[in-house]
Please model this.
Amino acid sequence: MHEFEYVAPRSLADAVAVLSRLNGQAKPLAGGTDLIDQMRMGRYQPGTVVDLKKIPELVRLELSSAGLRLGAAVPCRVINEHPAIASDYSALKDSTHIIGGIQIQNRASVGGNLCNSGPAADSSPSLIALGAVCVVTGPKGTRDVPVEQFCTGPGKNVLQPGELLVELKFPSPAANSGSAYERFIPRYEMDIAVVGVGASVTLDAAGETIISARIGLGAVGPTPIDATSAAALLVGKSATRETLELAAEAARGLATPIDDMRGTVEFRKHATGVLVRRVLETAIQRAKGLA
Model:
């Protein structure tokens, strides 16, 4: 690995100042589980690495009546062990639980996973399903970006020089709501998703009719996909297998995967539909308090 400078600012203002001053010659480090490997392979050769884990805003995990605020550098292990996240933001728990092994989860963060902007990132479909909003800060101030608009291409996102992702904001879960995430991989862990799906649903008081839904797809396009049109097919309908199949078929049509060593286009499209139905079934069971 090449030589580089290491700095660990203790305030958000200092971090922005360093990133702005170095104007693209620095890389922020949340957990480093992606960045360190990329530096070893020579993909990135930053002159300075800016460690963000000493900045209070980036390691904050705060739950209130307004929802969840999740700092970009909060480790996956902390998320996995939080009981309120497991019950109220189940898809987030599902996805962070399978990002690497225990050692990786002690360092890896949802914010870092998102900023790496890999199409197959496990956290992205769950973030879409849960309606997360990215809080981005830089030399020109702070702005909010819906998570489905954050990634712009493989390994690319909306962050400009000097900007960093501070936190993710999630709305408070509605009554009778549930969410879930699943992926298909050749091995149980330490692998990249061939297809990943996150979904959330809200049911009426009787637990029979779907009144809102969101579906996020991963690894089947150059960026994570907000399957809005597929989710819209669920609204106002009974939570039956036939209804879920409508959304599954629509999601297959939204998927634009490629052939590679991990799967063919045909297989990925088929698996997309299968996982959409499964994840919706789990989300519905959780909304009913049955899972």
User: Anything to note?
Assistant: The chain has eleven helices and 14 strands. The CA atoms of residues 141 and 163 lie 9 Å apart.
